[in-house]
Amino acid sequence: MGLLSRKATCNSHGQDSSYFLGWQEYEKNPYDEVKNPRGIIQMGLAENQLSFDLLESWLAKNPDAAGFKRDGQSIFKELALFQDYHGLPAFKKALVDFMAEIRGNKVTFDPNRIVLTAGATSANETLMFCLAEQGDAFLLPTPYYPGFDRDLKWRTGVEIVPIECSSSNRFQITASALEEAYEQAQRKNLRVKGVLVTNPSNPLGTTMTRDELDLLVNFITDKEIHLISDEIYSGTVFSSPVFVSIVEVLKDRNLENTQVWERVHIVYSLSKDLGLPGFRVGAIYSNDPIVVAAATKMSSFGLVSSQTQYLLSAMLSDKKFTKEYIAKNHKRLRKRQSKLVAGLEKAGIGCLESNAGLFCWVDMRHLLSSDTFEAEMELWKRIVYDVKLNISPGSSCHCSEPGWFRVCFANMSEDTLTLAMQRLKSFVGSTASNDRSHQEMKNSRRKFRTKWVFRLSFQSFHDREQDER
Amino acid sequence: MAIEIEKPSVGLSKVAVSETHGEDSPYFAGWKAYDENPYNESSNPSGVIQMGLAENQVSFDLLEKYLEEHSEASSWGEGAPGFRENALFQDYHGLKSFRQAMANFMEQIRGGRAKFDPDRIVLTAGATAANELLTFILADPGDALLVPTPYYPGFDRDLRWRTGVKIVPIHCDSSNNFQVTPEAMEAAYRCAESMNLKVRGILITNPSNPLGATIQRSVLEQILDFATNKNIHLVSDEIYSGSTFSSSEFISIAEVLETRGYKDSERVHIVYSLSKDLGLPGFRVGTIYSYNDKVVTTARRMSSFTLISSQTQHLLACMLSNKEFSENYIKTNRERLTWRYDMIINGLKNAGIECLKGNAGLFCWMNLSPLLEEPTRESELALWKVILNEVRLNISPGSSCHCSEPGWFRVCFANMSEQTLEVALGRIHKFMEQRRRN
């Protein structure tokens, strides 16, 4: 039988296999309050489970939306036949209004410039196809969402060159880091087509400062390249500083309708803000009509189900609902994040001060046996196997400094979070107080290494990859 | 909307500015003419009647009845208990209950003559995505797929645009009812070779779009043998399999494999969708069924870019697991499509127009070559424009389907009411009469 393509056989959907080992362990032994209280608690999944009740109560009050009805009349046939890649106009309008509302209505969006895609995963890949050739490069600040390695590179053949950020300045982007990344790309003979940032950041949980955004605008103007701002967490900004979108900066600098304005593209999704990853609702927003036109046609390969577009157009058009949802969601996220931060503090663990997202960027450098990624991996394995928490190691996010971990807080109940913190506290306590444990740690490291090598030879864990941010 | 640019826009990819999306072809131009002047029985009775859209609108009442009687399928039940779980479900394996329901449905369509394993089903947002995805997996940029003509115009975009893969046509003609022959396949293969293209597979549509006919078992065997001899893949796009007028006439490649004991089946992949059989193109439900484990695994991972909304998976899992519903639907849908087909064939015959003998699909393949001034593509397009602008019917010219014989047109019959179809047939009748008189 004929061979498969290089894309199929290279296995470079880019996913770090160790990252999914934690997932696999969780699947084998998942925590359940009643049935499995000693199981592994999933803290590696950036889901928003805090506000489902608000959605459920809206659905109960508005049965027409899911029931294919408009004003009591069935529109099933109309929806079933609707496959126009321009998208349901009512949904696009509701979506851009929602995006504006999230940005405090400081900016407005034109529904004719939005392209709907099956999730942000699809949006990001589509933008690569539109903006870059095979072998071109995009610059991304580290640490970044591990899924980008697959989404941006796999089928497109585009390369990622990292913009290294460090804890010395809270992982903010600097002018020198941008230049250095650009030069690195040149040294590798890669043509840089743009910069892609995630704002608010995954995994940092922070919003970009106005200075950083200004820096980016200057940089892309100077280099005449694109900027993609992945703002899928924009609705999760729960405390100050207030979220500043790239479009606001462009507006404030009077750059609307200039060339650079046409090179800035936004990616959005309802997977994080509304907690609906299953519904596959993503969007590209661009001021370049050719990008909008090309992306619209490409969206044929990943349209949003008309059933889902209709449901969400009804929901997001309900301004009373969106106002309440945004406010309550923020409040709950803030409360949860504080709980995580406080719990970590009690365990003597700090984290990057954050104001957004569904996770914290946790500093466990002081728990490393050495300032190396090997030590980070050892620590991570202990946390997965001994502490029984699945968290994400910084190396999987391409962080240049070992010892940082992303820990999610919005995908579990409050009690589960409390338990997780207690486990962590015990772990840290026992590690610090006992000298003998140092030798034990050495032994167990050897054991883990063997276990680790053994597990690497399994083919099966490749099958457990999930879409998770 | 043609994108007229003299040089590529600063900073965009070649793919973004290329015309391989194919939307400047007549196939889409007719669509535009319809959009600007659409027929409406009461408000615009002289408007353009859309006969270029392969939609199935004959069985919606069955779907609506099901939904009325099973509200839990669309509302997650009382108090929405399954809502959270459903909203969070983004596993690229797809809802198990839905895959199971799809496998059963595909078996029912084939009269139980082939079995489908739900774990070999990969879900994608429509067959459009499935075909592109398979192409990414089976071929490298610059490679070629062989596709029998005439074929669905969308393949030019779906198989080639972002993948960089080429299509080399397997020419078929009316001398044998446009069936694929070993000679034609061999000629296409040699043609690819002469262009230094590496052939990675052959893609057939069965039942065929635009022919509206199923492929005979003997021809399927020949195609499979050809693929085996050349050691290439075989993709069988069976999205019209539930739209055959008689259940027994459709032979799926799955049945041929079954007869051969699944020997050497890793080269075979089936594409399916609910857009045609169930009339749900808006819901974006496509599948890839592969007998190749590596293809299944890779396709599953790639499906991340094109997952089906879990809300929709839930709805359809409920609907298709209901045996009473699915059996009745398949049977009734067939009967209604047959009725429509007979109506249009007789209507055209009365107007003096012959069609290819069809037994499936949502369209017929009409022969207007006697009307051509010259047996050329230009003549065909001229005739098409007359039909669009004077008769005010949007039908698809064979040239947009890469047909090598001018004069054939695809005419859809299931995307309108019976009354509208009568009106369309009346107009054709009048047009043919006028031509005879002139």
Walk me through this protein's architecture.
The complex is a heterodimer of chains A (469) and B (438). Chain A is of the alpha/beta class and 469 residues long. Chain A is 45% helix and 13% strand. Chain A contains 17 helices and 15 strands. Chain A has helices at 6-9, 17-28, 52-61, 63-66, 76-81, 89-102, 119-131, 148-153, 175-187, 210-223, 246-252, 289-298, 306-317, 319-346, 373-387, 414-433, 436-456, and strands at 41-42, 69-70, 73-74, 114-117, 137-141, 159-163, 192-198, 226-230, 264-269, 282-286, 350-351, 359-363, 389-390, 392-393, 404-408. Chain A has a seven-stranded mixed β-sheet, with helices on both faces. In chain A, strands 11-12-15-14 form a four-stranded antiparallel β-sheet. In chain A, β11 and β12 form a beta hairpin. The longest helix of chain A has 28 residues, at 319-346. By secondary structure, chain B is α/β, with parallel strands linked by helices. Helix content of chain B is 42%, strand content 13%. Chain B is built from 16 helices and 13 strands. Chain B has helices spanning 14-17, 26-36, 60-69, 72-75, 83-88, 96-109, 127-138, 155-158, 182-194, 217-230, 253-259, 293-302, 310-321, 323-350, 377-391, 418-437; strands at 49-50, 121-124, 144-148, 166-170, 199-205, 233-237, 268-273, 286-290, 354-355, 363-367, 393-394, 396-397, 408-412. In chain B, the strands form three sheets. A seven-stranded mixed β-sheet of chain B has the order 2-8-7-6-5-3-4, sandwiched between helices. Chain B has a four-stranded antiparallel β-sheet with strand order 9-10-13-12. Chain B has a two-stranded parallel ribbon with strand order 1-11. In chain B, α7 (127-138) crosses α12 and α14 (323-350) packs parallel to α16 (418-437). The longest helix of chain B has 28 residues, at 323-350. Chain B is globular and about 65 Å long. Chains A and B meet through α1, α3, α5, α7 and α12 of A and α1, α3, α5, α7 and α12 of B. Chain A: Keywords: Ethylene biosynthesis, Fruit ripening, Lyase, Pyridoxal phosphate, S-adenosyl-L-methionine. Chain A: This is 1-aminocyclopropane-1-carboxylate synthase.
